[in-house]
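User: quick one
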Amino acid sequence: MDKLNIIYVDDQREVLSTLSKDLEVFEKYFSVEECESADEALELVNELDASGGLIALIISDHIMPGKSGVDFLIEINNDGRFGQTKKMLLTGQATHQDTITAINQANIEKYIEKPWKSEELIDSVKILLTEYILNAGIDYEKYTPILHQQTLFTILQSRV
Amino acid sequence: MFKLLLSIAVPLLILFIPVNSFQIEGLTIIEKRVIALFVMAAMFWILEPIPIYATSVLIIVLELIMISDKGMVLFRSSDASETFGELLSYKAIFSTFASPIILLFLGGFFLAMAATKFRLDQNLARIMLKPFGNKPKTIMLGLMIITAVFSMFMSNTATTAMMLSILAPVLVLFAPNDKGKIALALSIPLAANIGGIGTPIGTPPNAIALQYLTGGNTISFGEWMSFGIPFVIVLMLIAWVLLTIIYPSGTDSIELKINSTFIKSRKAYIVYITFAGTIILWLTDFIHGMNSYVVAMIPVAVFTSTGIISKEDLKKISWDVLWLVSGGIALGLAMDKSGLAEHVVKSIPFSSYSPYVIIAGASLLTVIMANFMSNTATANLLMPILAALGTSVESLVGLGGITTLIIAAAIAASMGMALPISTPPNALAHGTGAVTSGNMARVGVIVGFIGLLLAFLTVYILRLVNFI
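Assistant: Done. Structure below.
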């Protein structure tokens, strides 16, 4: 079975622990990994990719010591290995310009502002994972319980 | 992992048992290999250690290696003993990938793909839903009719996905304890499963059935619809009444929104005309002489030459469904051509059973298996045996022989709909969270049982009017 990974990056411990609680529902189907910096995350995705793992989704904070979240996501976006990977920016401190760069250059699929609502985040993650799984040519059947139903129906109806 | 090992070990064991220990007189070595292949197919399709379409590919490849005239030398050499049997032509095995049945389905895929691409399905759904007002009860009937009609030409899964995406925004508006929600969510997969019976391309088991109805038993597209459609109408009305009784709605009115308008472009008109034209040609074979398989290639040619289906679209075709059926045809071919099917049927004293028991037993077995595994795989496994039964058991001939048995089994294969795992439409409806497995089982078992009785009634009437 292809191993699907969700990676979240933030420099604050409290944020990581809240996120980890929110993302708990996905742990049965995905391997959920946390990182404290962009560099650590880059190292991790390289490692996972080399061992045949698939990166389904990256959730990243923006302002972090070292590499910024937007720069990190641009790097991911320009990397052919992660062409299908979904990217979400989760931040409270991105400037107007940062946001524009994130959309235009990192091609982020979702922008969620801190502080976030649990249900909103989980719903967004579900949508992105559903899109990833159906577009990346992975058999969706065994993931059905965790997928975003409306998104699943919309994509499936165009398949014959 | 255990499932995989078991599914490999048992057939291997059969390969190594001496032929004469099978208690079937005159069994050849080739036939014994086919038994091993059949057991392997059955175990792989039931236990599913690998995807079901992969099992089909495996069957074809193993047949080519083990029982074809261009197979591995190891399997070809015989000490010229009579018990070796006849090797199959490798070309015949290869041609199962492109049998007329497969191409009929391909034609159906092209129609469905073009219709979806140009939103013909959404637009028809919007228009057809209008007369049904806004009461949950009548809307449900409307949704079921639309779902059933679409699933006759599109895959049951795509139809269900489309209808659920229309329905899902409404489902969340229901009060948590309103049973009407369950009825609505269940109505879609029920109608999709039932509707598939309507045409030969509605669902793969129908096409597999046609594969075994050859020569004097051939059934045309229109002939299939002449009993398929009435069956669908009656069973769907029963299912609708049942749903309204078991899960009455406490809501007065619901509003379904379908945002779509007819596309008015040259390509869109070609799609509309080709869609209607193909169906008309399918129904009028007695005028123009082209059978349904030939007609099915017309939309393929029209849509590719006009660019309506692009080469990118071609990649979206469900090859898994086509290959799943191919494997079944190859399995049937091996059982028939090696002589195994007839051999086995003759060695079991079926003739001493009442023909009614045989038909009822076969249909019941089909519906039970279809509940727990893929309907198509069920048909793949059972139809070759039933075809042999139908032609060799004397007492069945009076009841329509092979045709009766095969049609009853084809309908029964679509009646397996009691569990979320029974069919993809069921799984999708269960995924909405509005329906529990219990809800589904209650309605699925009742409708499945009534459907089975209705299938018997159908073949009985067909026999009365001398159709079979």
